[in-house]
Amino acid sequence: MSSILLTGPAIEPLSLEEAKTFLRVEHDDDDQLIAALIASARIQIEGLGKIALISQDWRVVLDCWPHHGRIAVKPGPLKALNAARVYDFQGQPQTVDTQAFVADLGNSTFAFMPWTMRVPGRIAAGIELDVTVGFGDAATDVPDSLRQAIRLLVAHWYENRGLVAGADKSVVLPSTVAALIAPYRVLSL
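Structure (tokenized):
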């Protein structure tokens, strides 16, 4: 299963003004840098947590229907199923009724009866589900702890003006940021 971003967030979960206030920056010289740091911090937190902060549209692609009748959507949290398609042997998409799926928004999963689903004709990427994920459309919909994680990461990067890497060349995440993200992480089993 893979997930492909179709439409990114319309806004960032932290405004430039909020970030500048947190950083105690009173000039406009670094506005582009700070805006880029905000976007980068959001992307970093979304990637680490396998979550979407602001509403986004994604396409979940599967080779076949899971036999257990459950599809876990990543990134989460799941908001809605917008469309479902199965590709036939000629490579033509066939619409699947979205009412065949029951959304468990709390677990970011879809339940369905696999024996009722059309079998994909393609060996790979035969099923596509278009979903909306994220905490909401407004910055205030994002949990405060995740917005604080963005503030701290922006401040860390602004102060250090470079990528801080460990001995193994991996990005070192400030422990406070990791702790703020931890309750929201979607773990793979």
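DSSP finds four helices and eight strands in the chain. The radius of gyration is 19 Å.
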